[in-house]
Amino acid sequence: MILDELEKRLRPPARAVPSYPPKVIVLASGKPLVVRQAENDDIPILLEAIEPLVRVRKDFYDIVAARMYAELLSQYLHRTLDPYCLIGTIDGVIASIVNGRMIDEKRGMSYHTLTIHRGLRCGAHMFAAKMEHHMDVLKQEEVFIVAESYLGFKRWMIEYQLEPRPDFQHELGGVGSYALTRKLYDTYKTRLLAGTRPVPPEVLRTADTLILPDEYPQIPGFKR
Amino acid sequence: MREVGIVGIGHTKFGRLDYDLVDIMAWSSLEALKDAGIEGGIDQVFVANMGAGAVNNQTGIASALVSRIFLEPAMAETVENGPASGASAVKCGYLAIAAGMADTVLVTGGERMRETTGWKATDFVATLTHPDAEYAYGLTLPAYGGMFTRAYMERHGLTEKHLAMIAVKAHRNAEKNPFAHIEETASIDGIWDGPHREVVNPVMADPLRLYDLCPVSDGAASVVLTAMETAGRFKKKPIRIAGIGQATDTHCVFNREDLLDLKAVRLAAERAYAMAGIGPKEISLAELHDAFLILEVAESEEVGFFPKGEAKKAIERGETEIAGRIPINTSGGLKAKGHPVGATGVSQIHEIVKQLRGEAEEGRRVKNPRYGLAVNFGGFGNNVVATILAKE
Fold first, then answer.
1. What is the pTM of this model?
2. Over chain B, what is the mean pLDDT?
3. E-strand stretches of chain B
4. Which chain B residues touch A153 with a CB distance below 8 Å?
């Protein structure tokens, strides 16, 4: 009984937040990338997919993977307020994961973008999907973003021309934050956001049961 | 003049490499020495590079390379000829041996471009344009590629789909090349017919799309040259340098009579054919400088593989595929193998050697090749080097 009481105190209130409607993007390879929101039951396998990258020094995969691991674990154990996680799968295999949370009704916070399957711009598509979630699904006005990797900075801060918000302290620490505003989102949406809805049922079914990647381009010779 | 052959080749992976430029070049150099079966005995080193000073804040890289791999007291120079630096450095190596100044020469081309952003890398390459008449107006190489493509399409009826077909071929070849920057398949369904083409394959320099342009890459490639008369002391049979041709054209593209006439490519190829004593029909495979896919099309016509305006039919018939009549860019080309500018010309020659030796990977190996042609294109066609290699 005492545990239930403590749990109540430690767990943030669950609020009804709209879910991200699944979509499909036909990649340059011709393969579909199915993007859907992760349920809590999906998180253990996502953690398993992320874990090998925690030891990859290249491209700051270690810090991004370690932090995302902790964020998703926190989401799984109900220790984050209004978190979300979107997953991109190719033939059911986890290709890319993005996450973040709502700060309040109008403002969101982007956490991380982690791409396992590289070379098809899956990370770019997933980051755009994350911004779509904040702007079009959660109807927010701005999203706070920081980058840990050079690639992330080049891709998000430069490509989206994000607004510097040096006075806002992002939860990930480090330098001052940047923000995607609705105006910027509307400017870049046509060029950077892709996807078709509804997803044909047979395609969506491929993303029902998540499959761990057999190989990681970041880890030559990886064997599970 | 003495005849010259290639007895050793080395290559790094192209892509984004987390090593300094000299380390990257040292890697391919040591691979080439190993392939030749030697540890030293190099008389001269030529290093091909375009941007070490501008991008990496390092100069004197030929001396640095010699010292890094303990080749002192070899003679050493850096050769800078824009994106054609690689083939120019091989030409210098050829001349040194042919003239009797050296017996064994190491040529290494290397570049580390991903230290900076894609935009800044594009700007750095654009410094090869005319400073007042071109650069000052914001002209970049992709911009020239776009204008050239549009003009070619209007004159010869080439379509964006033809370019997509070349991209698919390039990716297919690169997928089987362990050194290639791009390791992913591209399909017509994704980059041409796909419902999300505008995002997946966006326009970069109209009408060129993302998949019509080469990536910005780091990497290095090396070859060991020696006099044919003494080549027997090396581990592998030499591949003879049968012909080298070079030509220049106006610095300002505006000053040319016809935008679509790549005169320097044509002249360089003609000079190489004349030196080798063969014609385009004898060529078994070619590596053509396709920083933009339109260049593969235009160069394939200028070097005499197809009449002007007819390359598109060859693309439709699959004649430039691995099993086609004249396989082009079996490595994946600059488009998919990558384009570390100073390394590219040496990398093209590396690929031809690999094919002529029969060492190319299964699935991209050309059947019984005899002669290979490499065209290394500097500026927007203002300095071009063509090299013909022969299997003895």
1. 0.93
2. 97
3. 4-11, 44-48, 75-79, 104-112, 203-205, 208-209, 218-227, 239-248, 283-288, 371-378, 383-391
4. none
